[in-house]
Amino acid sequence: MKAALHNDDHLDPRGYRHNVAIVLCNRRRQVFWARRIRHDGWQFPQGGMRQDETPEEALYRELYEEVGLRPEQVRVMGRTREWLYYELPARLRRTAAGAFRGQKQVWYLLELDAPDSAISLRASTEPEFDAWRWVDYWRPLKEIVHFKRPVYTRALRELAPLIFPGRP
To answer: What's the rounded Cα separation, in Å, for the pair 32 and 34?
Structure first.
């Protein structure tokens, strides 16, 4: 799996690609977990920001492209306070369009305000996922690829009080 860098992707001066990550939960406080096409890896929806986009604009574009949901079908519960960074392993940094060091992400926590049937992995002409399921909020930390684990841990810990108020 090589990281894709598109011509309109936004890179910072240190070589980090601007990105949004989406933690979508249901009313049972389970999170949406999706399997990448042609890979056995599972992850949260995420995607690069275009140079002319705000994080919120990228959030809604990626939400539709990857999950088929519109803004009125979700409720934004919150987001990380600052950018969270992760480094790509060297073998994944080189792409046909160039190289980048890793990603800097704003993470959003959303609640689904529509039936599960509203979710569509085929909303885009280039789907990124071929399967999905609802899982326990903390389960992704056990399954995510090793180099993303620290950023997933930090994001889920920061967002947890929004989904589990009153819990430490």
So the answer is: 7
Exposed/middle/buried for residue 21 (C-beta within 10 Å: 0-12, 13-18, 19+): buried
Sketch out the chain's domains with CATH numbers: 16-163 (3.90.79.10)
Bridge partners, residue 135, by sequence: 31
Supply the pLDDT for residue 93: 66
Q: Give the DSSP letter of residue 76.
A: E
Q: Which residue from 45, 60, 77, 82 is spatially nearest to 160, judged by alpha carbons?
A: 77
CA nearest to 131, candidates 1, 48, 38: 38
Interatomic CA distance for residues 94 and 92, integer angstroms: 6
Kindly give the parts of the chain with pLDDT less than 50: 1-3, 5, 96
Q: Report the percent of the chain where pLDDT is more than 90.
A: 76
Torsion angle of the four alpha carbons 40, 41, 42, 47, in this order, in degrees rounded to the nearest 10? -130
